[in-house]
Design a protein that fits this description.
This protein has about 180 residues and is an alpha+beta fold. The chain has helices at about 1-15, 25-105, 115-130, 155-165; strands at about 105-115, 135, 145-150, 170-175.
């Protein structure tokens, strides 16, 4: 485009200087007007192209922002779904634990402590020996170390005899309320 303008400018300059050319001054003026219009119109195409590119860039930016918004929404939905699943899981565990407590109310107690640190230490000792231990707090705030629970009194007595022989001769049965 710029080469075209340079060549046109040189041609016009030569025509004006050389008044003996094949063009008279009137036709020269018309030629200058026509060439000037061509220059103006041809430069306008470039401006329209810039507008078109700007519009295209705006459309692409909007599409990109929409895509990001959709991805964020999807991630947020997944996070909410996961939280709901975790809450449902915790509720199910809590309900199962309550049911277990109702069913397994006869506990074999191998130690009872007023000091929580002693109870925790003894609980850890029994756990390290392979027992399924549980710390239970009674209504007098004693921490009791249980090594098992049974559904029935008969089962509890059998387990108590085993605990007295293997672990602690003063083991006893606690009935959870």
């Amino acid at each position: 485009m710029s080469i075209f303008l340079i060549v046109t400018g040189i041609f016009i300059y030569l025509c004006i200087i050389n008044s003996k050319s094949i063009f008279n001054r009137n036709s020269m003026r018309n030629l200058v007007i026509v060439l000037s219009l061509l220059v103006v119109l041809s430069s306008g195409c470039e401006m329209f192209g810039k507008k078109k590119r700007a519009e295209q860039a705006a459309i692409e930016l909007k599409a990109k922002n929409d895509s990001i918004a959709k991805a964020k929404k999807k991630a947020e939905d997944a996070k909410i779904k996961k939280q709901k699943e975790e809450q449902a899981k915790k509720a199910a565990i809590k309900k199962a634990e309550e049911e277990r407590r109702k069913l397994y109310k006869f506990h074999i107690i191998v130690g009872s402590f007023k000091t929580p640190e002693y109870a925790t230490a003894y609980n850890n000792l029994m756990s390290s020996k392979g027992y399924q231990t549980e710390l239970i707090t009674n209504r007098y705030n004693f921490k009791m170390v249980s090594i098992g629970a049974s559904k029935s009194w008969k089962e509890a007595v059998i387990e108590l005899n085993k605990a007295r022989e293997a672990i602690e001769p003063t083991s006893w049965i606690h009935i959870r309320e």
